[in-house]
Amino acid sequence: MKTLLELTQVGIEFKTDKGPFVALQNVNLKIQEGEYVSLIGHSGCGKSTVLNIVAGLLQATTGGVVLDGREVNEPGPERAVVFQNHSLLPWLTAYENVELAVKQVFRGKKSRAEMKEWIEHNLHLVHMDHAMHKRPDEISGGMKQRVGIARALAMQPKVLLMDEPFGALDALTRAHLQDSLMEIQRELNNTVIMITHDVDEAVLLSDRIVMMTNGPAATIGEILDIDLERPRNRLELADDAHYNHLRHEVLRFLYEKQRKVEDFPQAPSAKSDAAKSAAAKSAGASSDQQESAAVVTSLHKKHVA
Amino acid sequence: MAASLQIPVWLEPYMRLLRGDRPGAQLAIITRQLGLPLLGIALFLFFWQVGAGHVKTSLGQLPGPAAVWDQAVNLKAEHDAERERAVAFYQRQHDRNAKRLEADPTAKPMPIRAYTGKPTFIDQIFTSLKTVMSGFALATLIAVPLGIAIGLSAPLYGAVNPLIQIFKPVSPLAWLPLVTIVVAAVYTSQDPMFAKSYVVSVLTVMLCSLWPTLINTAVGVTSVSSDLNNVSKVLRLSWLGHVRKIVLPASVPMIFTGLRLSLGTAWMVLIAAEMLAQNPGLGKFVWDEFQNGSSQSLGRIMVAVLVIGLIGYILDRLMLGLQRKVSWDKNVAVR
Asked: Where are the domains of chain B?
């Protein structure tokens, strides 16, 4: 499978009143086409920042993001975002919300009849056919999030970015939506990056889990391959030994934070050494380092200059 | 309740009472809805009657509710009498013309002269309404586009904001002399379409009532949530698309809040402006009665005060109805 999205030495620094605040440092990640990657970590570790950089809503101060051979500088529908707060336009119905996105992306490329069919198809994928013509204040939180997902899918993105999409929902709704998402993924085989707090959700849905260290100057701590067979059934997996082992690995990373603590307030060289050794622990990263070195130089120069 | 006929909420207790459905509960609701307000009004009228009896002014006894009611009836009678006189005046002219045609079929009919009676109280109400609507419409036409512009552009806001803050608190009575002099100098056509007093009143109303709409529109435009802005960025909407599809619909509730406040202000300002500009509306009526100083004046002024209050209330309710229809934000309490 080819590499669709590549983050190279991505770092971001915010100027605050108390001086520059380094939120991220040396984030290196390669995502293959059709892969489902979860980004997990403690609150404030910079997961949303990484997503916003990939989405183009924020600009990295060092390093860069390359999607399908082209650099990412600004937001666009090929990196569709599903926000944590659905972000539906309250004065439009569910259908009209998706229509706004479809018209913007497919103007001139689809006829009106085709657009209508495409909109209805996407709403059908998220099981919102019956409530298509209702306004956001007339539907529940779970339904609003479904419409948000339909809107993102309707843009036919190369990468689907989801920022804690189910964070604002109760456990039962979350379970339903996770199942819907797996169903959609089976059908469409999208490339997805999802941010989540929920370990179970991450292990259930993803192909790889990227675990981030604590902020500030957060980076990628470990990457875990989830080699559970698809389709995944949550009831069956509850008793599965391998599933529990994987969960255990993630929890160990998150709750035995000692692993990353000793890398904190130190000279920059020591920090980058620690980051490099951590990256080397992750699956298959060693060969990537040489490839990324060449890309790093040119991108680094561009962004620093 | 699956009702094929949709009765308004406030009517339901009466329907239920007729059906005998929990009469105790319905009576409690009716008392609260209707009884308490009526009780409040009745108490007010009582204290007014008692208090008025104690106050002797230079123009006679301060009128109580009964005297004011008499004056209201009087004003209506005067209005009707005036209308009859106008009708009779035109009728006489038509009769004269008919007689001349009878005597001499080739004679040209004399032109009908216009009736020049003074405007009645009801006429003055309509003049006031017309003036306030013109002033308010003019204010809206200026305030809404300007508000959107300064909301969208921070530099423009920085430039315009000091002017807004300085001119907002100025009273209409302070604007009037300036407006009168400027209009007298500039509006000098031989056959004016509008009377000078009308123009002066409209401009004064506009100057004082445009600020709430302007400020609320600007605030509405700037406070579009960042989530919606992010959606617009991901969709790569053009600047015009962003304004038309996201900013404007999102600001509509705030714009209508501003319009409602502006209309209230406009109506208040109008009465003062009319008094001094002598526009033949309710303001002039009050002023004339005051200058007149007859024994009935106080009563008539009080009738005018009550009518002004009622009209202001009705205008506010109309605006509220419009706001409810248009505003998509169910969280904003629209009362």
From this structure: 7-39, 68-117, 121-326
What is the Cα–Cα distance from A88 to A96, expressed in whole angstroms?
10
Cβ density class B220-241: b for 16+ within 10 Å, e for less = bbeebeeebbbbbbbbbbeeee
User: Domains in chain A, please, with CATH?
Assistant: 3-78+200-304 (3.40.50.300)
Q: Which amino acid is at A153?
A: L
Q: Which of B237, B249, B252 sits opposite A104 (nearest CB)?
A: B237
Do residues A223 and A209 touch, judged by C-beta distance below 8 A?
A: yes
Domain B121-326, CATH number (from 3.40.50.1820, 3.40.30.10, 1.10.3720.10, 3.20.20.70): 1.10.3720.10
Nearest CA in chain B to A105: B235
Q: HEC states along A157-197?
A: CCEEEEECCCCCCCHHHHHHHHHHHHHHHHHHCCEEEEEEC
**Beta carbons of A57 and B328 less than 8 Å apart:** no
Using one digit for the tens of pLDDT, what is the confidence trace for B135-191?
999 999 999 999 999 999 999 999 999 999 999 999 989 999 999 999 999 888 777
Q: Is the reported ipTM for this assembly greater than 0.85?
A: no
Angle between helices B172-186 and B248-277 (to 10 degrees): 80
Average pLDDT of A183-208? Answer: 91
A-chain residues near B235 (CB < 8 A): 77, 100-101, 104-105, 155
Q: Does A85 touch chain B (CB under 8 A)?
A: yes
Chain B residue numbers with beta carbons less than 8 Å from the beta carbon of A134 are: none
Residue of A84, A86, A91, A138 to mutate, testing the B interface (most B Cβ within 10 Å of its Cβ): A91
